[in-house]
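Model it.
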Amino acid sequence: MKLLYAEDEISMSEAVVDILTYHNYSVDAVYDGEDALYYAKQERYDGIILDIMMPKFSGLEVLSALRSSGNTTPILLLTAKAEIEDRIVGLDTGADDYLPKPFAMGELLARIRAMLRRRDEFIPDILKCGNITLNPHTVELSCNNASVTLPKIEYKMMELLMSNTGICLSTEDILTKVWGYETDADIGIVWVYISYLRKKLSSLGANVEIRAKRNIGYTLEVIS
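Modeled.
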């Protein structure tokens, strides 16, 4: 399991990283909110741990930016005991859990395990990216007051891309997540469905596009 841990207290960060590494987690440690947001958008993590009080961007600002972009990675907030209002705002913004400081390492590990068990359950009612939305109940892709109902495979692929906005997904990863690990489908089928989705995004006038990165994969990005 790969985690992103954002904490500006270096000694605290080093101690937590040592414990997490000992328990077989792979951890990227950053020390301010700007780096936390950058790493979260560039890499695929199983979970993110954010201290609320950080330089440049607060944990709440990072959380809000990630959820607004469609990122559904489970997030655990670390809060000071007096920050009750921040805990409420954090949960309302999309945090999966919070842990008051100071905390016991055993409780941190338990919260992380619980958060990761729920990681596949956190799916917002409406996924958003740029000026498009994806409704899981109606399987409709919408933009500018126009909507199109997506077939099952196209919906699953669009959901995957929107849940990982800005993150490059390999062709193999898309194939296994959309068609399943036991699929006999040829890897070229991914390009075919990417083409279908590109045409639908274009017809809706979306300000997002599916970009191909040579020898890496595909990513959904807002057009600047």
